[in-house]
């Protein structure tokens, strides 16, 4: 049984190192448990899991909180295999923020991070979910998340991966209920990586809205395939924007936006572009004393942060 | 003491001669105005001195502090002490001015806090003409240049802002013995700078030079640049 500690300043609400849960915060308004414990103690959560979880966290925001939630899952030892099933539930009318960090301490730990997550936003709730990944060159990482948005709820999901692993397989499925809105921002910096991104937004409820922005950078033999789709089943609005930067000729980016419309009142659009670093910006920064590499790194970090 | 010595510099773009066997000398601490009609090659000269790669030098030499810099990339020239204030600097989304300064600064810019509102803005993104010029100045002055080239610094500035910018530059030039090349086709800013020397560029060459900027301005005002085409020294 992992020890549960009250979170101190700057401590995450849930901290896992390798496969050991190091700390969990206790709060009257939020229930934070290992997913296994939640499965055993709270029968109603079983419907959200596909079978008994092996690891991961359960966060249930029952009442309004005035602090951002934070979780941190790290790999610090070689050859660790993490298999997480995370569940986060935001109750009706609650507005919450979450900062989620998953990372590897070193470049050469050859870790595996597999995370299956489900986020339930109930009616009139909102969540800003900032998800940061930082991996080593030899890691294999596969986050597979499903977001279910209730009526009038809103989600802002920011995913940033500036230090990519060897392989990255991202799956995001977002199911939008009536009048819900989702704003997705995915930024991935491919450096000698095999990256697959599959993002699917399903506009299921009337007047739901979705904007999905994908920013990709391909450098040093990266192979990136990004499929981003919006399926409009009812009168709703959606937009996909995929922008990619190619830094060298050794990399490959396949950007595939897909729109599926099943209702004549729906408005769904997309734009996609793949380009190179602007020579004008590059020369400008070089005239300020930055080397070509330093200038490219700065332009790339700016591109991914917008 | 000579800081910059350009000898017989010729530059072409797609077979068209932009600079034609141009000679120019700038001394340490000198404020030098470079006048000329549109398309006379002034901005090209600025970019060639800075080492921007879009221009290929055909012949000639560029000595800076007695060192040939013709083959050096822009970042090396910057490290040697050459800086350029761009006429139209590019916008760099997502890069805050404060972050850029962290990367490039050699010197703490005086009164930087006066412009703190610009530090958290993205570099040249949605800035007014005046804000862009101030952003440029903060950047170049943080590099402690020995030679600062101002390409049309007066464009987009109202009179008050222009006076503010000139005051900053004159003070810096005096205290750091920094040479300045002021490129302008209007010449109004020269009244505030009182340059030590003026060169007039016509068709990619220095057509005339003088230490009396007022006389040059007067002549240009009367005759546009027509007279400059034929005179060697006013």
Your description of this structure?
The complex is a heterodimer of chains A (306) and B (234). Chain A is mainly beta and 306 residues long. Chain A has one domain (14-305). Chain A has three helices and 19 strands. In chain A, the strands form two sheets. Chain A has a ten-stranded mixed β-sheet, covered by helices on one side. In chain A, helix 2 (279-287) packs across helix 3 (292-305). Chain A starts with 13 loop residues before the first strand and ends with a helix. Chain B has one domain (28-52, 80-229): P-loop containing nucleotide triphosphate hydrolases (Rossmann fold, 3-Layer(aba) Sandwich), CATH 3.40.50. In chain B, strand 1 (2-13) and strand 2 form a beta hairpin. The relative contact order of chain B is 0.18. In chain B, helix 5 runs parallel beside helix 6 (159-176). The radius of gyration of chain B is 17 Å and the shape is globular. Chain B has helices at residues 42-50, 74-80, 97-104, 116-119, 129-141, 159-176, 190-193, 213-223; strands at residues 2-13, 16-27, 31-35, 56-64, 67-68, 82-85, 92-96, 122-123, 147-151, 179-184, 197-202, 205-210. Chain B has 234 residues and is α/β, with parallel strands linked by helices.
Tell me about the largest β-sheet of chain A.
10 strands, mixed
Mind telling me the CATH class of chain B?
Alpha Beta
Helix content of chain B: 25-40%
Secondary structure class of chain B reads alpha/beta
Largest sheet: spatial strand order of chain B: 6-9-10-3-11-12
Strand order in space, largest sheet of chain A: 2-1-5-7-9-11-13-15-17-19
Distance between the termini of chain B: 24 Å
Alpha plus pi helix count of chain B: 8
Pattern of helices and strands of chain A: EEEHEEEEEEEEEEEEEEEEHH
CATH architecture of chain B: 3-Layer(aba) Sandwich
Mean pLDDT of chain A: 92
Provide a count of the helices of chain A: 3
Which stretches of chain A are low in confidence, meaning pLDDT under 50 for 5 or more residues running? 1-9
Rounded to the nearest angstrom, the distance between the terminal CA atoms of chain A is 42 Å
The oligomerization state is heterodimer
Order of helices and strands of chain B: EEEHEEHEEHHEHEHEHEEH
């Amino acid at each position: 049984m992992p020890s549960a500690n009250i979170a101190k300043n700057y401590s995450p609400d849930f901290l896992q190192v390798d496969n050991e849960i190091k700390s969990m915060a206790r709060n009257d308004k939020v229930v934070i448990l290992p997913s296994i414990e939640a499965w055993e103690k709270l029968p109603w959560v079983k419907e959200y899991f596909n079978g008994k979880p092996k690891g991961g966290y359960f966060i249930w925001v029952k009442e309004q909180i005035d602090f951002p939630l934070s979780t941190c899952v790290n790999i610090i030892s070689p050859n660790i295999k993490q298999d997480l099933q995370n569940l986060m539930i935001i109750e009706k009318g609650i507005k919450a923020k979450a900062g989620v960090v998953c990372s590897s301490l070193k470049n050469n730990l050859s870790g595996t991070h597999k995370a299956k997550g489900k986020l339930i936003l109930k009616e009139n709730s909102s969540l800003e979910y900032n998800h940061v990944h930082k991996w080593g060159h030899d890691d294999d990482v596969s986050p597979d998340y499903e977001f279910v948005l209730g009526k009038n709820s809103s989600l802002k999901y920011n995913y940033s991966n500036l230090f990519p692993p060897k392989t990255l397989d991202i799956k995001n499925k977002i199911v939008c209920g009536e009048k819900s809105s989702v704003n997705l921002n995915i930024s991935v910096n491919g450096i000698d990586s095999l990256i697959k991104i599959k993002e699917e937004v399903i506009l299921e409820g009337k007047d739901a809205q979705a904007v999905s922005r994908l920013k990709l950078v391909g450098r040093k033999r990266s192979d990136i395939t990004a499929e981003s789709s919006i399926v409009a089943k009812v009168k709703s609005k959606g937009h996909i924007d995929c922008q990619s930067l190619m830094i060298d000729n050794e990399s490959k980016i396949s950007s595939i936006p897909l729109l599926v419309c099943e209702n004549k009142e729906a408005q769904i659009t997309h734009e996609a572009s793949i380009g190179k670093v602007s020579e004008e910006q590059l020369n400008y920064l070089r005239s300020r004393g930055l080397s070509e590499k330093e200038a490219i790194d700065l332009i790339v970090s700016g591109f991914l942060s917008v | 003491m000579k800081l910059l010595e350009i000898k017989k510099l010729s530059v072409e773009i797609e077979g068209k001669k932009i600079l034609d066997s141009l000679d120019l000398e700038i001394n340490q601490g000198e404020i030098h105005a470079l006048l000329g009609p549109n398309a006379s090659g002034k901005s090209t000269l600025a970019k060639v001195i800075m080492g921007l790669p879009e221009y290929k030098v055909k012949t000639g030499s560029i000595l800076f502090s007695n060192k040939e810099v013709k083959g050096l990339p822009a970042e090396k020239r910057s490290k040697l002490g050459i800086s350029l204030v761009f006429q139209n600097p590019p916008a760099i989304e997502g890069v805050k001015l404060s972050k850029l300064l962290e990367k490039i600064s050699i010197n703490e810019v005086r009164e930087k806090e006066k412009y703190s509102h610009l530090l958290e803005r993205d570099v040249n993104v949605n800035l007014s003409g005046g804000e862009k010029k101030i952003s440029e100045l903060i950047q170049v002055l943080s590099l402690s240049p020995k030679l600062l080239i101002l390409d049309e610094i007066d464009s987009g500035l109202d009179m008050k802002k222009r006076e503010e910018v000139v005051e900053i530059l004159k003070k810096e030039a005096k205290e750091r013995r920094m040479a300045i090349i002021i490129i302008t086709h209007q010449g109004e800013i020269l009244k505030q700078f009182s340059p030590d020397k003026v060169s007039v560029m016509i068709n990619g060459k220095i057509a005339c030079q003088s230490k009396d900027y007022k006389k040059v301005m007067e002549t240009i005002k009367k005759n546009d640049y027509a007279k400059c085409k034929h005179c060697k020294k006013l």
